[in-house]
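Batch 3, record 17
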Amino acid sequence: MITPRTLSGFKDRLPEESLPKREMLNSLMKTFEFYGFAPIETPHLEYAEILKKQGSEEIQKELYSFFDHGGREVALRFDLTVPLARFIAQHKNTLGLPFKRYAIGNVFRGERAQRGRYREFTQCDFDFIGSESLGCDVEIVCVIYSALEHLGLREFVISVNHRQVLNGICEILGFSNVTECLRIIDKLDKIGKDGVLEEFAKIGYTHNIAELLDFIAHKDSDYKVTLAYLETFSNKSEALDRGISDLKTFFELLEGLIPSSSICIDLSIARGLGYYTGIIYETHLSNLKNLGSVCSGGRYDNLTQNFSKELMSGVGASIGLDRLLAGLEELGLINGKKTPADILVISLDNLMYAYKSAKELRDNHIKVEVYPESKLKKAMQYANNKGYEWVVILGEEEMKTQSFTLKNFQSGVQHNCIKLKQMLEILGKGK
Amino acid sequence: MITPRTLSGFKDRLPEESLPKREMLNSLMKTFEFYGFAPIETPHLEYAEILKKQGSEEIQKELYSFFDHGGREVALRFDLTVPLARFIAQHKNTLGLPFKRYAIGNVFRGERAQRGRYREFTQCDFDFIGSESLGCDVEIVCVIYSALEHLGLREFVISVNHRQVLNGICEILGFSNVTECLRIIDKLDKIGKDGVLEEFAKIGYTHNIAELLDFIAHKDSDYKVTLAYLETFSNKSEALDRGISDLKTFFELLEGLIPSSSICIDLSIARGLGYYTGIIYETHLSNLKNLGSVCSGGRYDNLTQNFSKELMSGVGASIGLDRLLAGLEELGLINGKKTPADILVISLDNLMYAYKSAKELRDNHIKVEVYPESKLKKAMQYANNKGYEWVVILGEEEMKTQSFTLKNFQSGVQHNCIKLKQMLEILGKGK
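Prediction for the assembled complex:
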């Protein structure tokens, strides 16, 4: 006998977790496709050399790599971006540019196991590759807005910044090591102002830090106010000027496409290390500030740099699925059902009539499970355990009169021997 | 620079392959959920001991196993059934029985690479576990029927047999090594009658083989005819009698649920080795006999035998996704589009108007891609490459009159400066 168990850091998803995840993915995929993003799939396993020397040092330490039957060094992918870069470099002539893709898939990182962090988790990315038009940036933001709206979310803000604005202000204030500055700024939320000052001191910066912090602290729910603030820095840095110009065009194109209350400029957003080169964004649920960003991304210029000399500009975003699911749950937007079905049909003595009735209900677009044995008590326990709101009970009387007895499991209200039409009306599925 | 390439036996799916796969999976999942099957997810990586000594010798040789960062021997799953057994044994108290699940996921087998066979491929299984009711067997068959019907297939036959019928006839004819006999019978299609005789001779059987072959060759499109034939063997073997009785109950319950022309008894179906114990089935597309079974399965009694002493009866089936996709393509049920969008919007000079128009179309349930640059020629090439049927072209005139120019890319017909309502009518999206 083998003890049934999963590896540390890996987990099974039971129906109550898989159902909302699948519903969410389904909704997201629909949104992506409404904007013309097409799905692609890449293997879970790649040549190790494709994945090595990519991502952070941390990620490299966590890489699952091994030798396969043919003696090749292979590794499990740790994200969907490196495989995308490989994919684009490999297929760009077939694909044609620009290319819009989404990808949903599991990735693997042998992190130290900790609460809420898993070694296998699902990523959901969408990218618009091969065009420098700010229209692409606009569409990515529209997709974020539509995606969250379709999930039932109403209160959220997409916060936008531009990497060249940050580069520019660093230049103006005399910080030459921009990457390091951005890395420190990115930690502001975590380590506070004093922590930031300390870190700056470590790399030899002691002047103008208050000015830099003032700059990035500027925030207004109206992007026009922030744009006006930025313009007071005009003509001091080429980078900053390009950032301002991009943001202006971006907001012009975006006008009327999403509510202006759903978007603002937040100059403190840096999105980590050297990856992004243009507009960047994060998305926060207004009622769950501590959740962190549920969708982040931005524009990059160097996606395929390890595979091809050709520069390839693109813009993309990644949805934090687990975070978003946790948010939806906290906001009460997820029901705790363990079954996708609307109704459990229970037969008292004649399974044949139960299956026929179930077919009739399914033909009327109701999702139906039939309890496979004529055992009322066990079936009722089962309905209760699965979280069914409705059960249909079929006995001799129902069969004789070709009717249904419908019981609401929550309220206890029971409708005896009603006809299909009446039942559909009660369930809100009638015309 | 690293050469961008995939491992031998692994492949990327470009949009033209991923789109129909996603549509197919979506349709299948909908069907599963209409019957109350819930999704579950298990990790791609398991303790190696869970996966070892399972499946055939072949499968074991092909296992991708290695040592992880913590020195644990781990392996990539080679199917979804062994993880299901582990899952059920581990969670049965939380889940409650019976339990209906579906699972769609990738599995890994380091097979010798050959045309059309991959080392990573997607499996799609659905199972009804923990009840011996023949109602479960009936529902699995109904799901197969509905699933294929919803994919647009009309001509297919589900062929049914019963393992105890085969056990029984072997007993009656004096073949004591039933497993070996079934293994040989299973190869009849491949090695022919002479091959079968040869193989039987090898294990010392020379008598009654013609009778056995006659028996399994019996076939009639009307299951009632075959049931009557089976009854001529009544009262000679307990196993055969149980098989006949099960099949009778099964067909009684199935009456009226699916067309009788879609199901028959085929006594030659053995479904391989020792796994199944009850009703078994295969599904063949009538116009593509050579494709092989697109959905196979049956009842088993020993799912969790390696993890728990408790016997656990279940019935399940597996859809051959790649085979089914190939079948759908051959039958012309897959379009070759490289984009999920219905329309490409092309702006001649004003991207802002293009995005606004796209929003209007999306609000009317049309999937729209906007070409992100105002370059007509490149955009038209793009539309052609992606297989778009329709493009919308927006210039100064259209913007002035708040209208659309709609062009059918296939026929070349162009509707100049039409209003939204008219356009929706042409696209068949009007009311």
